[in-house]
Amino acid sequence: MAGGCARADVYGSLDEIERDFGVRPTGLHRPYVDDLTRPNPDDPTGRSTMRRVPEVLDCWFESGSMPFAQVHYPFENRDWFEHHYPGDFIVEYNGQTRGWFYTLHVLATALFARPAFRDCVAHGIVLGDDGAKMSKSRKNYPDVNEVFDRDGSDAMRWFLMSSPVLRGGNLVVTEQAIREGVRQAVLPLWNTWHFLSLYAPRRGEFRTDSRHVLDRYALAKTAALVDGVTAALDVHDIAGACEQVRDHAETLTNWYVRRSRERFWAGDADAVDTLHSVLEVTARVAAPLLPLVTERIWQGLTGGRSVHLADWPAADLLPHDDALVAAMDRCGRSRRPRCRCGRPAGCACGCRWPGSPSPPPTPRRSPRSPTCCATR
Q1: Would you tell me how many other CB atoms lie within 10 Å of the CB of residue 307?
Q2: Whole-angstrom Cα distance, residue 299 to residue 282?
Q3: If you ran DSSP here, which 8-state letter would residue 35 be given?
Q4: What would the pLDDT profile of 74-85 be if each residue is shown by its tens digit?
Q5: CATH of the domain at 279
Q6: Is 100 found in the same domain as 19?
Q7: Phi-psi group of 86: left, alpha or beta (phi > 0 → left; psi -120 to 50 → alpha; rest → beta)
Q8: Largest CB tally within 10 Å, which of 65, 93, 94, 260?
């Protein structure tokens, strides 16, 4: 600025800079652009010089430019970008609501008059067992390899996906909490499958026409699971999907199986086929959350190559009966099984269930899969 001749130029490419300054900079950051000067074209005296403004643009500008800058749009890949923008999904720490998420939307609105992405998940902070931020120097978290060896990698996956951290809350990582997830979700599913593999006289078939009230309930409850998990995953509510799978696993092992054992021991075809069908659908629904355990269950049930190659169950695959599910759930809540010690079902005290008949001394056949659930 000189003699009242003020001028500001904003450059959109290296070509424009080279055109005006006669040199092509090797970078667009300081110090590469600090030496670029040129006479002010608006100053007739020719005494004023244009230089880089002293302010530095917020570094979040670059992060917000990521969707188009990474593919060098609009200079290259124009067709690809226009068919892939805005993004379908993005995930980051919830502090990015005022950082990356915000800048992405600001630039997308300014340049394209639309949002930068359609859906996002904002997670919280993962803390060590002392409540402080996880740190290698502090070693305030369980050894991951030990967790994998002892509990299986599904245990760690479930612990993270079912936690408040995927709803923006903070998460304290402890061995006890990881094992609790195994007890609440992994073991009930595995034990239900193991029970079927031990006591069913034959491999089950996919069949949903049983008229026994417990079978109808199990089928309708699983149909509700499909609806609920589908709805949760459609809006990226991962923790909500985990809650439904956990509750369903508890219903299967502590309600349906415990009240149907005599039917299995007697070789009841309706019971065998119903549990087979329920587990087959449950394995498909839970596969994104427990990929290794459900893989073992699926292969044992069907002999198929992989549950992850199977289709997601359709909404009408199983019969719905909302009234029966509601009535049976009320009954289950009022008569939830408890051990002799008074604790809820599933405690490790070793008590026998009051009034429960003893199982047969030997299974009808060998299980189709080992009892270990610590798959890696």
Answers
A1: 21
A2: 13
A3: T
A4: 989 999 999 999
A5: 1.10.730.10
A6: no
A7: beta
A8: 260
Q: Clarify whether residues 117 and 192 are in a common domain.
A: no
Tell me: the pLDDT tens digits for 151-192? 888 999 999 999 988 888 888 888 888 899 899 999 999 999
- Same domain? For 185 and 106 the reply is no
- How far apart (Å, rounded) are the C-alpha atoms in residues 319 and 313? 12
CB distance 104 to 66 below 8 Å: yes
Cβ(152)–Cβ(186) below 8 Å: yes
Q: Domain limits at 270?
A: 175-334
What would the two tokens of residue 310 be? Answer: 């199977």
Radius of gyration of the chain (CA): 30
84 occurs within a structural domain? yes
As for how many domains the chain has, the answer is: 3
Q: In terms of domains, do 24 and 65 share one? A: no
User: Does 302 fall in a domain?
Assistant: yes
Dig out the tokens for 92 from the structure: 């980051």
pTM to 2 decimal places: 0.75
Say if residue 265 is in the same domain as residue 323. Answer: yes
Identify the helix (H) or strand (E) that includes residue 39: strand 38-39
| Burial class, 272, CB count within 10 angstroms (exposed 0-12 / middle 13-18 / buried 19+) | buried
Among 19, 34, 56, the domain-final residue is: 56
Residue 350 lies in a domain: no
Record the tokens describing residue 340, joined without a space. Answer: 């002799």
Neighbours of 359 (CB within 10 A): 14
* pLDDT string in tens for the chain (376-residue length): 444 678 889 888 889 999 999 999 888 888 888 889 999 999 888 888 898 888 877 888 889 999 999 999 998 999 999 999 999 989 988 888 888 999 999 999 999 999 999 998 888 888 888 888 777 788 888 888 888 888 888 999 999 999 988 888 888 888 888 899 899 999 999 999 999 999 888 888 999 999 999 999 999 999 999 999 999 999 999 999 999 999 999 999 989 999 999 999 999 999 999 999 999 999 999 999 999 999 999 999 999 999 999 999 998 999 999 999 999 988 877 666 555 444 555 554 444 434 444 444 444 443 444 333 444 4
Instruction: Please check whether residues 104 and 36 belong to one and the same domain.
Output: no
In a domain, 168, yes or no: no
329 and 181 together in one domain: yes
- Structure token pair of residue 355: 């009034």
Domain limit, last residue, from 106, 123, 140? 123
